[in-house]
Amino acid sequence: MKKKKTQLPELPPKAKQHMGMKARNAISNTLIHILLIVITIIWLVPFVCIILQSFRCESSYMVGYVIPKEWGFDNYIALFDTDFPKWYINTFITAVITALLQTVIVLCMSYTLSRFRFKGRKLLMRFMLILGMFPGMLTMIILYRVLKDIGMTEANAVPGLILVYIASSGMGYYVSKGFFDTIPKSLDEAARIDGATRLQILTKVILPLAKPIVIYTILTAFMAPWGDFVFARYVSMNVSSGMNVAVGLFSWLNKDMIDGRYTMFCAAGVLVALPVALLFIFLQKYYVEGVTGGAVKG
Amino acid sequence: MASVKLTNVKKVYDKKVVAVSDFNLEIADKEFVVFVGPSGCGKSTTLRMIAGLEEITDGTIEIDGVIVNDLQPKDRNIAMVFQNYALYPHMTVYDNIAFSLRIKKLPEDEIYNRVTHAAEVLGISEYLLRKPRALSGGQRQRVAIGRAMVRDSKVFLMDEPLSNLDAKLRNQMRAEIILLREQLDTTFVYVTHDQTEAMTLGDRIVIMKDGYVQQIGTPEEVFERPENLFVAEFIGAPKMNIMKTQLLYENGKYYVTPFDSKIEVDGETGELLKEKGYGSREVILGVRPEHIVLSENDAQNTISGTVMVNEMMGSELHLHIKTADDTKIIARTPTVNLCREERLQLKSGHPVHLTFPGKVMYFFDPETEKNLIY
């Protein structure tokens, strides 16, 4: 191997170089901040518009201005005379039960795959990875058929949806398994010698240490059913009492109804966004830790 | 308090890698046994098999006469201290120590008594409400020992408990483990790669290499009568000097001829050689650094060399000496025997003469590497 000698460029005096760096940093920081502010405004405009529209009382149809002339909660109150509360309850029940069951399943699955070595473990993980690559829509027709046969469609869509959402939840183990892998195995071993069962190890040692990932799992498990549209619409089959918020509100979006209900639609949108937004604001810290925690040992 | 018996224990990983073979050992009640060996020799694996953290491929392990092969760790009534402490980071020191007792559902006041007693013995009472994060390495190790102490278990297993501590703290904790052992009065199995720990702590030492037991014996036995070359080199620091040489038998006396010298093998060693009836033959000669004597002048029974490195250890010098044919010999010389001028002279490049005392030599077979005398 020949060693090439590289000529070093002449360096400016130290003080000057320092100043230059400082100035350059300041400029690039300013540019980045300006860009971020512009993006934030573009993102926030629709949300602000919807919130403002939801408080408009003077008319219920689309108008050419944003700031309401008369403010009030009329739109929110009017929602109670529609099927919206029913949809909201449907969605809430579905999302909460799914979040609970799915979290339990995902965490047990992740712990098992992280700590136990059994025959076919690798195969199982690869199989689930490949299975996860197929779009879920493919299964819709057959799932509908099954749900219809056991009477879980139309007005009974809620249990049917819960069943479908949690059925494949074991496949979402990647992030939490990655997190569990970073918790030293000797903690499990110490607990085993201390007399703990596997379940006790999981609940008393591993989960308290994996708080961010538990919260991340609950959040994602809550979000999916909360915002689901395609499958929920298919299963509820135009029966209003089986709809969730997304499907129900969509039924308002037609020429006959939207003129009378545009501001109510906006109010409903705000109410739907509220729980998720609140959850995120309070749990954001853990969410970020959970997403990045699997990769980098904290 | 219990005896532990291992019979033909074997561990194979993935049907391929043999980690431990043919391990036979009986540990008496209240005995302190140390497993020692270089990394990868299977000592930790054996300990983990006793603990129940590794499955036993073949053979049996008995604790107190009961075969425990298929028992879960929690049913074996053992306590274990891990190298990395394995403290539960989210619990306070008190909760860490109390964890096993709470699992057993003991009454809280009983738990309180046991935990505070253990903390007192270990001198960690003032840290009971801290999290492990806020403790130093030595304190964490005490907590780990405390967690094992409160359980009243039959066997106390320790997996390199001092390896993560700095040298000074390690010496201190070693002394404390000896005290702890007197207080607990139970059976100990201790794993280490450090021969000093093994020598100072163990009633008996098990020396392992590549999954096989090399020798089991008291510290005196393994030091004075190593069964083979590996044990001889492993026990003792700095390690024994090894050289291939010729053993001569002339007129009823034995001589060795390292580096063109001729040194008489006398004393006990010579008599033992005679008892075994060896004639002249090839041998591997072993001489411990502390037995090497520096001599003033060149003679037939001395070897000449030059000092390469002089390590001043305080009470003694470790001299790394290069002989004429570039072999390295390490000698330990107590500083009390040298006056200041002599000490200062012994720097790099200084010529020295040294000799081996015939009565404390070790002889090994060049082929089998077995000790020829014992």
What topology emerges from the helices and strands here?
The complex is a heterodimer of chains A (298) and B (374).
Chain A: H1 14-54, H2 74-79, H3 84-115, H4 121-131, H5 140-149, H6 157-167, H7 174-181, H8 185-193, H9 198-209, H10 211-227, H11 230-236, H12 245-250, H13 255-293
Helix pairs in contact in A: 1-13, 3-6, 3-7, 3-10, 8-9, 10-13
Chain B: E1 4-13, E2 17-27, E3 32-36, H1 43-51, E4 58-63, E5 66-67, E6 78-81, H2 93-103, H3 108-122, H4 137-149, E7 155-159, H5 167-184, E8 187-192, H6 195-201, E9 204-209, E10 212-217, H7 219-224, H8 229-234, E11 241-250, E12 253-256, E13 263-265, H9 267-276, E14 281-287, E15 293-295, E16 303-312, E17 316-323, E18 328-334, H10 340-345, E19 351-355, E20 362-364
Parallel strand pairs in B: 3-8, 3-9, 6-7, 7-8
Antiparallel strand pairs in B: 1-2, 1-4, 4-5, 9-10, 11-12, 11-14, 12-13, 14-20, 15-19, 16-17, 16-19, 17-18
Helix pairs in contact in B: 2-3, 2-4, 3-4
Residue windows where pLDDT falls under 50 for at least 5 positions of chain A? 293-298
CATH fold-level label of the largest domain in chain B: Rossmann fold
Count of DSSP strands of chain B: 20
What oligomeric state do the depicted chains represent? heterodimer
Distance between the termini of chain B: 34 Å
- Whole-angstrom Rg of chain B: 25 Å
> How do the strands line up in the largest sheet of chain B?
6-7-8-3-9-10
**What sort of overall outline of chain A do the alpha carbons produce when their principal axes are compared?**
globular
Largest sheet of chain B: 6 strands, mixed
CATH architecture assignment of chain A: Orthogonal Bundle
**Total domain modules of chain B:** 2
Count of discrete alpha- or pi-helical segments spanning 4 or more residues of chain A? 13
Number of strands of chain A: 0
Total helical elements of chain B: 10
Strand content of chain A: under 5%
Please name the CATH architecture of the largest domain in chain B.
3-Layer(aba) Sandwich
**End-to-end CA span of chain A:** 41 Å
The whole-number mean of residue pLDDT values of chain B reads 89
Enter the CATH topology name of chain A: MetI-like fold
- Output the helix-strand order of chain A: HHHHHHHHHHHHH
Instruction: Give the overall form of chain B.
Output: globular
